[in-house]
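Running this now, will post back.
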Amino acid sequence: MFSIVVRITSVKQLFYGYDYGRGFFVFHLATAPAFEKGPNVNRDTEAQKKDLENIRQRLTYLDDAHRPSAPYAYQLLVEPLDEAGFNDFLKKRVFACLPKGEDVSPPVEPSKQLHFRRLDTYGMRVMDRLSRWLQNLDFVLAFQVEALFRNVLIDPASLLAMQTDLDKLMRSAYSVGVKSDIIRQFASLIRKKIPQGVLYSDANDLRALLKQAETDNLNLLERTVARQAKALVKQGAGAKKTALAEDGLLPQVVDTSAFLCYHVTITPTAIQLEGPFPVLSNRVLRKYSEHQHCFCRVHFTDEEHNQFRWEREVDGHEFVRTRVGGILKQGFELAGRHFDFLAYSFGALKEHTVWFVTPFDWHVTEHGQKRFDAHGRPIMQYVNAEYIRTALGDFSKVIRCPSQYGARLSQAFSATYPSIRVSQDEIRHIEDIFDGQDGVRLMSDGCAPCSPQLAADIDAVLMHGKIRDEDQHAPRAYQMRIGGSKGMIYVDPRLDGRVLCLRPSMNKFDAPDSLDIEVSNVPRASAMYLNRPLVMVLEDLGVRLATFLRLQQEEMEKTLDAAKSIERFRIMLSQLKLGSRFNVHYVLGNLADMGFGFQDDCSDDMGILLGDYFYYEIVRSTVWDVFRKIKYQARIRVPDSWTLVGVLDEHGILGPGEVMVYIQDSEYPNGYFLKGKILICRSPVVHPGDVQMVTAVVPPAGSELDKERLANCVVFSGTGARSIASALGGGDLDGDLFHVSEYRDLHVVQPYRPAEYAAGEKRLLDRDATIDDVADFVVEFINSNVLGLVSTTHLIIADQHPDGVRTAKCMKLAELHSLAVDYAKTGIPVPQVRIPHFEFPAKPDWKADEVGDPNSAEFYPSQRALGHLYRRVQLAAVNPTMRVKDEEGKEPDDIDRLPLPSKTAQEVDDAITVSVRDRIEQHIEDLDAQTPQMSVPMANIFTQYVYELRRICTLHALHINSPLTEMEVMLGTILRKSAQPKRRKELAARMHVHTSQLVRAVQAQLTPTGEGDDDRHAVLKAWHAWLYVAQLPLEQTRRGMEKPFGAKSFGMIALGVIFKLLDTLDQRPAMDDGPVDSADYEFDFDE
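Update: finished.
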């Protein structure tokens, strides 16, 4: 028996009626329904559920007749119903929390009539015609055309009806990029006119919308090109263009650290398309830079773009093998091209995301130079997925283990920044260091030294590419990739010239000809924060509840207190890395210097209050973000504590159980040594022995560690019976982050003996693995990765049992956790049947997610520290004002509500304009008479900025019908509640990269070009950018009169450029407010 399963939450609209003695219902859905096959079951009793596992099959479509339309059918017609059935459903819809619905029974006015007709819009003939058409289009354009019907905007038949109009656009003289923008704008205009999932088929309206999209883009383009051409004539024939993309539009990518990536989401029923938009690049994409459009990221999700979750009675595992495995092994058609599975990056595997590629002809390039034969003809190479994998290196060490083969391939697909190229003569192979007891334990796992000159050369490249902040201290260590090796390198002052040392433990496969050093992380001193697993373990190791409550109270009060002072608030923003792309903390610091402030700064009529809705929202959104993390993650900052990368003492100075930690940041510009007993751990902690106490020492004066103090690293001893890093949950030194704390109230009096597990076995084949074997592993990983389940079960049982994390079940779960962490490399999963059951069914209230109800019978009020911390934070439903409550639920009198806006946006902008003008006139006389030479009108730059900002708001939102706000993009956070915060974090990280490229593109228009363009002229350009948005008229919104969308964030970019340039003219350094919490934006590390 077939079934169509509809989630109540996916029903957006409901229509019903009664006609000719028959009742009917029409459901308009936000996402496609689920299709299943098998017996109907009664899901009411737990006893029955145990006998119902895997008795139903999940389907992509019901039958062959349904197959063509299944991905696009977002409306369901249920009929006929007799009168009793019709009335019964009307009553039940209320209890099911369905929308109220609209009665469309005849007679109704024409605008409310529903019309039904049978159409062959997805028939084989139509789809074949469409495929042939797309094959003949440039892929960049074909992708956008296919997205029109894949994303359920236009049905294929209506799209073919527009082929003549679209072909006319394709034949036009405009660049491919402009044509692509026109089609994307066309899609955006359609989406504005219709609800999601409703196909638009009015031919005349569609042509009008296409014409509007073309006009909108070309008006902007023609003004831009005309202005740029005039500027170039004025500058002379030899003048170069400024940092503009083709045709004078703002570039979407400004450096080789990112590229425009096409995204494909494959759900159980459909294939949906997004992009292209910027993502961090990698080794492979940089090698084939002229063919980056031939690569796409494919994400396997459920219909709501979340990870797969199955009802007990549905055989989800078999469906994943069929749906996901079939696509991985057979590929798929996109825009008239065939795409094949290529590989995955290690971090993306956990998100069920992989790389696909379509074959292309490549002009062979070596070291950035194109190769030609003896006759001057280009040397061409046919490139497909197999060629790319083979060219990466020799994987014979791991080729019998599919999971390990996949993991080694993933090194080349990890997000990295390009730096320098070394020669073979500059690489020095050195031996690993083992323990001094029996010589079998590795102490130098994944790390090696480098020379000061090599580190300086890497730093110079990162500085030039703006990867490292100018005001950050020069790093003394880097996490890097080179060829088949990866790990940490750190400065050894004994090495002269350019020297890179590599150890056997760093080498994962052989690629001797790949000599580019790629940087995957630039370590710096970051704050240490508590988290739920760490709180649970520390509590069971003797840390008092009062300590956690005090830290939480201090964190919340500090957050609310910072919201009242611009100086405290900007420092908090910098530490949280919120608004970093827009330099919000830096702009606020400069405004503070000019007399602007918040509530506490402007008492007694002193100072100029930043009191409009924009600055109010910056403050309120930041406080919301902090409090949400405190409540749902127990993310509480620990004083006198840091998060640092680990490296090794190469000199044998440190003894067993000793570390050296030297902090150098804005708080300690002259450096600070940690001394005495300190707590050390790494996240996540599971076993009680994952937290240890070590001795921090100051190196002897004149010693090698004194000469090179390896600032902002934990330097581990290379002596003793076991590596300290290994004792901390199996850590190593290839880039792991470690928490170190001098905060005595968290110190453990009697640490638990560290866990020690035997190395996990690997699943090996009796032959060399193929990419199909890797595909099989990806499928099984999606089905069998229980790391999250193990972690959650461990915390819940620890809460339920008096012995906490030391109970036998939790100790067993700690062992299973170690195996689950290694699953992606060993290929051997943890069977779910080995995971112990809860002590009792109810879960602690802190386990309720953001959209759950902790007061329901499903939860109990936890009496552990996590329960007390959870209940102390009260969050309103939507982005509220925050209050701190004590254990009795009372609000302390000394915590005031955040001040409400008291000024208009124009009043604040006018005040800023006056103050900034005064400061600029210290360097430029008669400012009003100065006009900058602009190759692009400011209005055009702003229009392009707003267009791309709207794309960011839509592309990276949790739900397509609830786009992000300008404020969320500017701060780099997503405020909407979600039952899957991990997905929200992924989207925020994706948004961060996209936003970074947009901001840098605007900054490039406002900063010196190097072609006779000095800092003073650049100040004029940025000043006119500020004046442009500051003088835009206010618009009526639901909150009152505000600046147009994009104006405030664009103004923030302009102010940031102005202040940076004025700092240069003043010859004073820009401010640095570290330490910054780098964990907010994690890189895609390989393991």
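Residues 121-239 form one domain. More later if anyone needs it.
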